[in-house]
Design a protein that fits this description.
Low-confidence stretches: none
Number of strands: 11
Shape: globular
Order of helices and strands: EEHHEHHEEEEHHHHEEEE
Distance between the termini: 22 Å
Mean pLDDT: 88
Number of helices: 8
Strand content: 25-35%
Amino acid sequence: MFGFRPEGRRIHDVDPIVAITPYLMPQRCDAQVFLSHDADYEPLMRYIAEKAREGHKITFMELIIAAYVRAISQVPEANRFIMNRKFYNRTELAVSFVVLRPTEDGQPEENAVKVKFDPSDTIFEVSARVKETIEEGRRTDDDSAAIKLASTLLKVPLLPNLVVHIANFLDHHDLFPKALMDALPFHTSLFVTNMASIGMTRVYHHIYNFGNTSLFFSMGTPQRSNQPDMKGEISRKCILPIGITADER
């Protein structure tokens, strides 16, 4: 309340042209912009292979998350969000993603998780935290808070609408409980989806209006493509396609 939130602090010195944009585009879905980034696959693969020889197993998703953590350490202004048309500096650095876990019928089930990082974290610290969270998220006997809450609400007619309306009201007035905020994946700096895990290329995922996520990354399977080099000469390269959806406000 009064500009203080569990995960953010109000910003007052915003350029007027920027400050008016949440009034013109009040919801995140109004302000979505879509970007494509083709990361050079070969240097990333060489780095992963080099670290594997040293005894460190690092994945492409961990590299992307580590790169984001390092970027925020250098440009903390990129870790901002808008709530109720007000701008906030985020006081924590969190990344959410979905983990596929096995089920008795053989059909993988989604489990949304969230990991918090420190801007000074190294690639090895990022990797360790991501692996630990994935291992916990894949436990079949431990549903996430999001799954437990959704399962409970759906058992009672009209209750989901009521609870979501109340949650949105509390969130827009800086009264959303910190414990619930930590348990759900929607209040996060970045949401990542690894489409390569199911053999798909990148997608441009929507940003949720619920919560305050301002950035969504989607990583696809590596692809071969013809690309110009610095001299304008065309060469065939392997790229790691990344789809980015951002709140332009």
